[in-house]
Design a protein that fits this description.
alpha/beta, DHBP synthase
Length: about 220
């Protein structure tokens, strides 16, 4: 007798990756899933996030459906370092000094974009992009293996007040909506602080995990 499973009962893969010393083999497999068009949940220095590669239009649409996001909601670009940011965002001397002092860390910076950013990720009027450099060993190892940024957003599911923080619960909740959940242990429930650098004045758009007291 054949047993047919409804797609809602199909689970994503789950990799247990050490938070301090990520296993290169598993990081390589996770990067392969992303390169093959996959969507991955992974830990950051603020909370769990869900992401895909920049050119993965279908992956972005899957993330929108998973989070029930309105069309036009902008995700952030997860970068490994300042040199990666400079490819996709316009960074002047003031911005560079600020970014250097606050990265890696739980901050999202709003910057004017370069032409390297696909149009669908830009604010339609201001042509800006949110960028960040996570202070998390697993996220950094994954970005290093990919050698390119990811488009990413907090894993905050519809109806939830806080992001999910347990990888097994995440796997049970998202089922087949993503291809992989990386279990890196608990990593927090608070989203990043958001800082706008698009105007001459530095503006704190959202107070989150990152300390912004020196910017006030």
């Amino acid at each position: 007798m054949w047993l047919f499973l409804h797609k809602d009962y199909i689970m994503s893969q789950l990799f247990e990756i050490h938070p301090e010393n990520p296993q290169p083999r598993l990081i390589g497999q996770a990067a392969g899933i992303l390169r093959d068009g996959g969507v991955v949940v992974y830990p950051t220095d603020s909370c769990y996030a869900v992401g895909c590669l920049l050119d993965n239009k279908n992956g972005v649409e899957r993330i929108y459906r998973l989070r029930n996001l309105a069309k036009g909601h902008h995700m952030s670009m997860m970068c490994s370092d300042l040199s990666s940011i400079a490819v996709y965002a316009k960074v002047d001397n003031r911005d560079y000094r600020l970014l250097k002092s606050m990265t890696p860390g739980p901050y999202t910076f709003i910057l004017k974009s370069t032409n390297e950013v696909p149009r669908r990720f830009l604010h339609p009027k201001r042509k800006t992009i949110g960028v960040r450099v996570p202070d998390n060993n697993i996220a950094q190892a994954l970005l290093a293996e990919l050698n390119e940024p990811m488009m990413s957003t907090t894993l905050l599911l519809p109806g939830d007040t806080f992001p999910l923080n347990d990888a097994q619960e995440i796997q049970e909740r998202v089922k087949s909506a993503v291809d992989l959940v990386i279990d890196g242990g608990a990593c927090g429930l608070e989203e990043t602080s958001v800082i706008s650098l698009e105007e001459p004045e530095v503006l704190v758009i959202r107070e989150g995990k990152g300390d912004t007291s020196l910017l006030q």
